[in-house]
Predict the 3D structure of the following.
Amino acid sequence: MPTPPTVALIVGSLRKDSVNRKIARALAELTPGLKFEFVEIGDLVHFDQDLEAEPPAPWVRFREQIAAADAVVLVTPEYNRGLPSVLKNAVDVGSRPYGKAVWTGKPVGVITAAFGAAGGVAANHQLRQSLTILGAPTMPAPEAAIGNALALFDPEGRLINDGTRGFLTAWGAAFTAWITRVGVRA
């Protein structure tokens, strides 16, 4: 039996009880055939080109984890109609050194979730814009901007909404097909 593709799973919220982390866990549970590994971003020093001469250890770890993965899924909230700064910083850290971005050629999926009805669509599109310039083939559809996300889980963090369960299952299948379609860089 072939080894399943490894997917780096990045959550754009640092809260341990984040609804986006819950969605990421649910996606991993509902997507057979992929091996998901959480990649933490809370310890990444703010990107500063001057640090490239001797990159901080968290930058090196992050870049190595993304480089080792076959694909990446980013699950994030929207803050003030935009991308959380901690996630934008991770994108920037992974974009350097110039010409060696870990994102280039890597199949990527984007999921946003928020307590409002729009589901973080502004952050979703901002993230896609940054990934496009870095050469990351980002799955175009189905788009995933999950609204009213606080009502989707029980107090223990289990997904209790059947519609969302069905959507995440279908999204995971589409992402699996996207990885196959795009291929994995050598």
Notes: The beta strands are 6-11, 35-38, 71-76, 108-113, 144-146. The domain at 6-182 is CATH 3.40.50.360 (Rossmann fold).
